[in-house]
């Protein structure tokens, strides 16, 4: 699973919290909803290893809610909360808003906990956005995006971090929030902005 084309975006772990049939998330759509927290604007482009845009790639996105739980772990969330399936535009561009994902602990009861304890390791993962990116003629990419200021970046308990998956979340004033996003008119506080391009290997 970790065999990667060095010219393409690195793969990372899938984890147990993906759901089937994620709801469609339009370009410019929002996953934050009524949840508290700083708005995170995520955008990028899907392209091939020659730099050409891949039109209409599909991006399946999921993450933790601000309470550190995925929807499948949390009876207070709808199962589709913080899950979305986006189709990139003709030039491979995608963009959406959410809240910053948070660090969490992998379930540390049972055999996993015993292994961690035997190895003298903690159960924390750095915060991340999960992506599965698919496009005809290209290898499906299962990956994650990490912010460069996360305290657990160098000690991910499941070793999912790769250098090219670490991005900076830039702080921006509210006035710089772009038009054309679902929540454009509602952003009255500073927000975070991350750009992440995805490069897929040919099949
Ligand atoms: Fe995760």
Structural notes for this entry:
Strands 1, 4, 10, 11 and 12 form a 5-stranded mixed β-sheet that branches. The chain has a 5-stranded mixed β-sheet with strand order 3-2-7-8-9, with no helix packed on it. The protein has one domain: Aromatic compound dioxygenase (Protocatechuate 3,4-Dioxygenase, subunit A, Sandwich). Helix content is 4%, strand content 28%. The chain is built from 1 helix and 12 strands, in the order βββββαβββββββ. The longest helix is centred in the middle third of the chain and has 9 residues, at 110-118. The mean pLDDT is 94. By secondary structure, the protein is mainly β. The structure holds fe (ii) ion. Residues 15, 17, 128, 130 line the site of fe (ii) ion.
Uncertain parts: none
Content of β-strand: 25-35%
Mean pLDDT: 94
Rg for CA atoms: 17 Å
The kinds of small molecule bound in this structure are: fe (ii) ion
CATH architectural name? Sandwich
Continuous helix count: 1
What fold name stands as the CATH topology? Answer: Protocatechuate 3,4-Dioxygenase, subunit A
Domain count: 1
The topology string of helices and strands comes to: EEEEEHEEEEEEE
**CATH level 4 superfamily:** Aromatic compound dioxygenase
Silhouette: globular
Distance between the termini: 15 Å
Main beta-sheet annotation: 5 strands, mixed
User: What's the level 1 CATH class?
Assistant: Mainly Beta
Provide the structure class: mainly beta
Question: What is the number of E strands?
Answer: 12
Helix content: under 10%
């Amino acid at each position: 699973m970790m065999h990667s084309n060095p010219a393409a975006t690195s793969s990372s772990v899938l984890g147990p919290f993906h759901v089937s049939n994620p709801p469609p998330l339009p370009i410019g759509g929002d996953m934050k909803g009524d949840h508290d927290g700083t708005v995170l604007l995520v955008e990028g482009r899907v392209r091939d290893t020659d730099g050409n845009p891949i039109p209409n790639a599909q991006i399946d996105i999921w993450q933790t809610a601000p309470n550190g739980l995925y929807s499948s772990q949390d009876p207070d969330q709808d199962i589709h909360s913080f899950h979305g399936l986006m189709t990139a535009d003709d030039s491979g561009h995608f963009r959406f808003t959410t809240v910053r994902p948070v660090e969490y602990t992998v379930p540390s009861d049972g055999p996993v906990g015993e292994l961690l304890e035997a190895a003298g390791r903690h159960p924390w993962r750095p915060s991340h956005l999960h992506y599965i990116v698919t496009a005809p003629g290209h290898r499906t990419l299962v990956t994650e995006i990490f912010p460069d200021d996360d305290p657990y970046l160098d000690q991910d308990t499941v070793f999912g971090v790769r250098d090219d998956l670490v991005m900076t979340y830039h702080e921006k004033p509210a006035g710089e929030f772009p038009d054309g996003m679902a929540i454009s008119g509602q952003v009255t506080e500073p927000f975070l902005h991350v750009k992440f391009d995805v490069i897929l290997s040919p099949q």
